[in-house]
Amino acid sequence: MIDGLVSGKLYGTATSRTGQSGRQFVTAKVRAAVGGGEPLFVNVIAFSTTAGEALLALADGDSVALTGTLTPKAWVDRSGDAKPALDMVAHAVLTTYHVKRRRSAVQGAQRQPEGSNDFEHGQSSHGGFDDMNDDL
């Protein structure tokens, strides 16, 4: 097996299932772009609760990055051509939602000097943040 990082778009929706032992897991399919322009399908299974919940929150076509163990596979299309595929046991999932949440947490942790004007530091009077006023 190979440890790897795969990024792509969710193909279809993730499905929650229960194994024979009663253990819950999530399955999904990710379409990853490769150099030749033809997509590579990654069959994903997640036993981790956090990874599974992240996959279940996504919709068809959402961007996702996954880490885990990879196993190379092959499948045959309708015309009889062999195509590559990967099976992945996902240990961690990162989505654009996670990136936005972490970014806002980091920006919220930065403190302003006392007595400073909120408008000078990119803050609006309504608590929003203006990305165009970043210090360069």
Question: How much helix, percentage-wise, in residues?
Answer: 10-25%
Q: Helix- and strand-based class?
A: alpha+beta
Please trace the helix and strand order, writing H or E for each element: EEEEHEEH
- The third-level CATH topology is OB fold (Dihydrolipoamide Acetyltransferase, E2P)
Quick summary of this structure?
With 136 residues, the chain is an alpha+beta fold. 16% of the residues lie in helices and 43% in strands. The chain has one domain (2-100): OB fold (Dihydrolipoamide Acetyltransferase, E2P), CATH 2.40.50.
Give your account of this protein's structure.
The chain is α+β, with helices and mostly antiparallel strands. The chain has a single domain, classed as OB fold (Dihydrolipoamide Acetyltransferase, E2P) (Beta Barrel), CATH 2.40.50. It contains 2 helices and 6 strands; from the N terminus they run ββββαββα. It has a 5-stranded mixed beta barrel with strand order 1-3-4-6-5. A hairpin with a 5-residue loop joins strand 5 and strand 6. The longest helix has 14 residues. The chain starts with a strand and ends in a 27-residue tail after the last helix. About 7% of the residues have low confidence.
Helices and strands in order:
Layout: E1 2-10, E2 15-18, E3 24-33, E4 39-46, H1 49-56, E5 63-76, E6 82-95, H2 96-109
State the main characteristics.
136 residues; alpha+beta; OB fold (Dihydrolipoamide Acetyltransferase, E2P); 5-stranded mixed β-barrel
